Amino acid sequence: MNQPDPDGAIVCSDLVRVFSTRGIEVQALQGLSLQVDSGGVVAVVGASGSGKSTLLGILSGLDVPTAGSAVVAGHDLVTMGGRERVEFRRHSVGFVWQQTARNLLPYLTAAENVALIAGVGRRAGRRRRAVVDELLDLLDVGDCRDRRPRELSGGQQQRVAIAVAMANSPRVLLADEPTGELDEAASAEVLAAMNHVNRERGTTVLVVTHDATVSDHVSRTVQIRDGRTSTEVLRRAAVDEHGADTVVAEEYAVLDRVGRLQLPDEFTRALELRDRVRLALESDHVGVWPSDDDRDTTEAR
């Protein structure tokens, strides 16, 4: 297993992205902050319109934020010029789309698709062939090397797409809804493949999705709501009281630098929290109650 790339971190601070259409401004990102350590595997989850795809467009160098800062693999995405942006997209970041047609050329075999990108990275012929073999074997699709995309299953297509994205050894792998068109079994295979790439290459992996079940396959899940990070779930291995291995998931609210946080939807619904809430500072926690004194004062912590 390779060590994480020390320059593979993602650091975003107070990102704002405003789109203007017919004189109407829409804020897709409203001060979003996010940090992913080098070698991490993170899923960013959010409903349609939450801002997750806008975030991915910025992190991949396809878009520029209206305000805020974003640094990926040592590149300042706000200030870098056109030439650096091209080099960044060729060598520092790999990308996997949801739609296979955007990942693979239909008239090339799996091996030829990977070799094409390795060629763009100016790899010599012998080294290029070695890279193709290594990646297809790493993603467990070596037996598909001579097949074209239409001859592959959806899961195989996406694993070949990961190989294509890794052809120039990027520090960061980004994926936009990579399991959106797959069944549960194929989705698990693709997510396992991304984890395998992370372990074997030390590549930072960020997956953007609306599918909450993806979070079961990563150690950290970041929830986006209304253009901001709202909550995080961290998972760790543990041993239960019977001595069996288990996974413990703990949910955290994200507190921004001015003290704002978003409570999870299921919390606010369960306690019917709305408009305003009553707060109390205790010795070791903050109490949150509905503002109506006649209602149940069950504490939300």
Please provide a brief summary of the model:
The chain is α/β, with parallel strands linked by helices. Helices cover 28% and strands 30% of the residues.
Distance between the termini: 40 Å
Helix run count: 8
Q: Reading side by side through the largest sheet, how are the strands ordered?
A: 6-7-8-3-9-10-11
* SSE topology string: EEEHEEHEHHHHEHEEEEHEE
Beta-strand share of residues: 25-35%
Count of extended strands? 13
Mean pLDDT: 87
Uncertain residue segments? 296-301
Shape: globular
Q: Main sheet? A: 7 strands, mixed
Quaternary structure annotation: single chain
Q: CATH topology of the largest domain, anyone?
A: Rossmann fold
Our Rg estimate from Cα atoms comes to: 21 Å
Output the CATH class name of the largest domain.
Alpha Beta
- What number of domains? 2
Structural class: alpha/beta
